[in-house]
Queue: 3 jobs
Job 1
Amino acid sequence: MRKYLYGIIKSENRESFGNFGVGNSEVYTIHCNDVGAAVSDVSEKYEVGIDEAKIHEKALRKIMETHAIIPMSFGIIVKDEAEIKNILKRARMKFKKVLKEIDNKLQINVKIAWDKAILGTIVKGNEEIRTLINEVKEKADQSLRVELGRKVKSALDERKSEYMKNIQDALEGLSDGFEENKINDPDTLMNASFLVDKKREQEFYDKLEELEEKYQKKLKFLGVGPLPPYDFTKIEVKRIDFNAIEEARKALWLGEELSISEINSAYNLLAREYHPDLHPDDPFAEEKFKRIKNAHNLLTRYCEHYLCSLGRSKVAETVLIQEKAS
């Protein structure tokens, strides 16, 4: 029976966590030596939809109450117990290293946004900006508007740097790891994840409240947790896309049955031929070289054994264990 994969834990025996998995199934472990995969059974025809994302998250939170867990991405299904054990065997030492790093730790996400009133405070306290605002009102001069925008942005950036340093210093002192996340909203000052010892969780939230009080009417704080340590476990198990493999195979002019040595030989030959330094007048040389390099990286990750097959059926049943993209 197929297995839905939630995450990786330390486990030397079969453990059962309860019937809260996808389809109300039992969440249990399949282990190999001293590492285990938290899984639940799913039928061949079971379709994973958006509703299962909440179940996935709930299962991870339940498991992390008693175990350090390397959370897997939502929606990973492997074909059977043998494949799970193969994954555990291949990456056992990687899993053990990460589990040691996150033992008794959890993730807290912190998002901090400007209060809308902050702009007025900055303008009021900056004589140069106030003067420019008056000049813009008096003159229909586009260059003055551009200069005003630049000055306001500069003042905001300066204030942001000041706040960020103080806040990071306060929070990093209570954490064992810090990861900045992408900011899409211009009103967002910080969007970050902190790896926090379980014993210091309340202390961390208390510090957030203290900072919110300190920056009252200037910043708005949002702390979300406890979460599985997604941003501090840089390993993922990923199903392979046949089309990506096929494109990589063709980029290196390879057949469907090959070895690591054949991949390396093809790459070395093509890399020498298409290296951008040898084609300074070709505007597409860098793009061609990048395609060859990416193809080499993908196929070497796929072919972890000496000989491998790139046929559709073989690719469809293969998963990669790799570092998460930054």
Job 2
Amino acid sequence: MQVLIIGGTGLISRGIVKHLLARGAEVTVFNRAQRENTLPGSVKRLTGDRNQFEDFERQFATTRFDVVIDMICFTPEQAASDVRAFRGRCEQFIFCSTVCTYGVKIPSQVLVDESFPQEPISGYGRNKLACEQIFRCAHDERHFQATIVRPSNTYGAGAPLIDNLEADAVAWDRLERGQPVLCAGDGLGLWQSTHRDDCGKLFAYSALNPRTYGQNYNATREVVFTWRDYYRQAAAALGKTAQLVFMPAAWIVRHDPARFGLLAEITQYHGAYNSTKARRDVPEFICEIGLTSGATETFADLRRRNVWRDSGTDVLYRSMIDEALACGVAPVPA
């Protein structure tokens, strides 16, 4: 099986490559070669900029792959370029979308499945939805068999571990120092986090799986957390107990809307999804890595790369904690 990954060195991509190689696939990645290369030597690397559309399409004009997986398509223009580049040149096209295409409404059964209306509230979600529609059209026109995968929060070595407030969280250093951290609301919002190796299974084992042709899948671990659960399990990776200071999301975002954009757009809302359909069609998609063990790995990788975020110089966060405490808000164990 010949597989091309557009991207290939990012977080989920590393999990995909791992499982594709285990399947005996021959893997090629295409990217700008700007990330640390941790891929096995058997992976072929092509270099280029997918945003240079004519060059990108020309580079693949005489090649054919069984499967193309695009991990870094974020705009309709990029999706249209993919269709031009790979129509008639691959059996299956797998697109990495996002659960952000669903928006923030909650179904009566609480967990969002693939039939839920897609009403994204962010530019990121709207662009991903537009890309999905382009690939569905290409599928209907028989340019290739399209499969859409929608991950939620995915983590692992190679990226920071988010908290409730921000993508590159200073909270973990504060917890290690025995200091309280902020959490929006009452910490009872629902959330899911999936390790990159587990998420990668769905992509890798969807490849040339006819049951996945023309289908959309959520790609989440079946365990649903509250944010209190999340902080407790992540803190356990540091051998600590999380002390949480609960404040309204609007209060937190108001202090720095750009910094706390993750909270404003995503994490203040429930993020709980049903991936039963994915496990039905791709039985290899079994999520085995718990948050504490995955966080331990992620924290070790942050230190190895010398990108562990130091809370000692974070004046804003410290002042927000002081302000909350001065209002009589007491820290609560997670």
Job 3
Amino acid sequence: MSRLGGAILRFDSLPSTNDLARELAAQGAPEGTAVLAREQTRGRGRQGRGWVSPRGEGLYLSVILRPPLAPSQATILTLAAAIGVAETLALDYQIAADIKWPNDIQARGKKICGILIETSIEKSQLDYAVLGIGVNLGQREFPGELQGVATSLAIESGQTVTPDEFAAPLLRRLEACYRIALGQPSEIIARWQALSSYANGCAVRVENGASVVEGVTRGLSIVGALIVEMASGERREIVAGEIRLRKT
């Protein structure tokens, strides 16, 4: 497996680092190739939501992965990436990071990072996956719809950190977590649950189309699905949906 970030392609501005990384992956770019931009004009998160990406204010990074996994196992990649980000914030910048399933990193209950995995499937195997990570670094304030729900490294720690400075330790941790995810996925599940205050005992409402499930979180399954225990005692494994978590 190639070192993640062994080749980093840097751009002043891109519509989306994930879009370019997907194009490169489809053209055969090797695993570990990373795309880094100072600005995204059409950055996005899960379910097509926009990701505000002002110039020089955040880390906008996408990395090409070629894991030997079935599509049903891809969730472990998101969990591994979340651990890498949370540990970088905690260990390098002394920010008490929390993980909210499946892909949000929070500080004091506000979102500081989002993760987006996009995959290409061929013959029931992952041909490649693109790991997109957006971390708020330098913002001192946010536009109206994000006020009160978003934060940044600068707000939380008072430190001024460039995207490259943050990317260096992050890529090292991502590679370590990625290797563990491929060899010992149960360890990733355990580490994720240890880092998330939302993993157990939180009220949850999951909306997926017309389906709604309400209950209390009971950790993760062996493939990374969120386990929800309903009032009847029945437990459901949630793999997708619009999820709202509230600490009890």
